[in-house]
Amino acid sequence: MRYEYLHPRDELVLTMQRIYRYKMTTTSGGNLSILDENGDMWITPTGVDKGTLTPNDIVCVRADGRIEGLHKPSSEYPFHKAIYAARRDLRSVVHAHPMALVAFSIAHKVPDTKLFHQAWRSNGAVAFAPYGTPGSEDLGVKIAQKFEEGFDSVILENHGVCCGGKTLQEAFQKFETLEVCCKILIKAHGLGEPKFLTDQQLQLQSKSDVPIDSFEYDPTMMTIREKDLRNQLCKFIERGYRQGLLTTTTGTFSARIDSEKFLITPYPLDRHSVLPEDLVMIRKGKKEFGKHPSRAVFSHKALYDAHPEIGAIINACPVNAMAFSVCHRSIDTYTIPESYVFVREVSLLPFETVFNDFAALTATLALQSPAAVLCNNGVMVVGQNVLSAFDKLEVLEHSAEAVLDAQPIGGHVAMSQKIIDDLIEAFHLERPAPKPSASRSRTRSRSR
């Protein structure tokens, strides 16, 4: 969706609906605003159900202070006004009370966004503003001071969070990414001590924005297979977002068209709504003219070149799998038959692998070993087709969540080697190469 074409009242409603639908605020909590080119502020109202908000409910506070609309502006209007006065570069503010960020708020802690590169790239360092009474000028001064110091994301003591951006979608991305970062940290502490990216690793990621030669793409030459794959990818990307496997800023999908071509998600991309024409064709190492592929394009190309049987690849950062990723642990699939049969043995690869060690990547991932945890970089799965890869991603995330949920009740009981041998025989699976027992995560598991 091209949000820049929407009127502020429509964009505010769509964004609030998204925040409410994904349980990042309550009926009464949270407020959004947009400052337009005339200096008028469009803001969500006070006392209106967030679940049934309409464009007619949005309030406009004119630059001269006049209020237009059916309702009063949000009670937090004072801090929105203060932020815009402190930061002339910002044109939108998002404030809400999502659960993980509230947990940090009431614990008086600030998340380290160097946990994974998208969080750091989106938010940078995060500030903490001391408590102020909701709706007061005092709270506005305290929050605006942090924004004036250069922060774009501020956790409010015993309150929630406030994020600012040049557009509403930029502010929302910061908000959503920060909430996911907090969720991952909370989950990770159930496993052990999360690890963070070094400045050198963050620079390595930023250097992956390498120019790619282009070719002139002619849509009239599109085959039925390409059309089918473009639509399949869009459906699964949107489903992945709805199910929390992706976020606005995280997740790359690709699908092979033939031996010379594949489709891949573009960069940047809002995973909430993807159109077939947004996807980028890569042909013989060149991209469609005028489009920018995901920065994972080279690692995907390496896998397609090395394994002709691979038909689809997914990178993702779902919360539970990410807990293992940031603790540098693999995910044990010796849990239930579905996990082992579909995902097999899950490897653990260093952060740098997808940037500069394609030999290790292609030696690790194949249809017989379709999943890997990437340290501080999520997970990567491959499949014969888009459905197969997506299924493996779902199973992997569900397996990770089950293992984490078992921790408070004593840890999971791993299936015995005899059960694994029976599964290999029953489902005609290829027997994996022998690995040291320590290579498989034993997160408080108890062997049979």
How would you portray this structure in words?
This protein has 15 helices and 17 strands. With 448 residues, the protein is of the alpha+beta class. The protein folds into two domains: 3-188, Class II aldolase/adducin N-terminal domain (L-fuculose-1-phosphate Aldolase, 3-Layer(aba) Sandwich), CATH 3.40.225.10; 214-439, Class II aldolase/adducin N-terminal domain (L-fuculose-1-phosphate Aldolase), CATH 3.40.225.10.
Shape: globular
How would you describe the oligomerization state of the chains in this entry? single chain
Biggest sheet: strands side by side, in what order?
A: 9-13-12-11-10-14-17-16-15
Let me know the largest β-sheet: 9 strands, mixed
> How many separate domains make up the residues?
2
**Rg over C-alpha atoms, rounded to the nearest angstrom:** 23 Å
Query: Based on helices, strands and strand pairing, what is the structural class?
Result: alpha+beta
CATH architecture of the largest domain: 3-Layer(aba) Sandwich
A few lines on this structure:
The chain has 448 residues and is an alpha+beta fold.
Question: Main traits of this protein?
Answer:
448 residues; alpha+beta; L-fuculose-1-phosphate Aldolase; 17 strands
Write the layout of secondary structure elements.
Elements: H1 8-21, E1 31-35, E2 41-43, E3 59-61, E4 67-68, H2 77-86, E5 92-96, H3 99-107, H4 117-123, E6 127-129, H5 137-148, E7 153-156, E8 160-165, H6 168-188, H7 199-206, E9 214-215, H8 224-242, E10 252-256, E11 261-264, E12 280-283, E13 286-288, H9 297-306, E14 312-316, H10 319-326, H11 337-343, E15 347-349, H12 353-356, H13 358-364, E16 371-374, E17 379-383, H14 386-406, H15 417-426
Parallel strand pairs: 6-7, 9-13, 15-16
Antiparallel strand pairs: 1-2, 1-5, 2-3, 3-4, 5-8, 7-8, 10-11, 10-14, 11-12, 12-13, 14-17, 16-17
Helix pairs in contact: 2-5, 3-6, 4-6, 6-10, 9-13, 10-14, 11-14
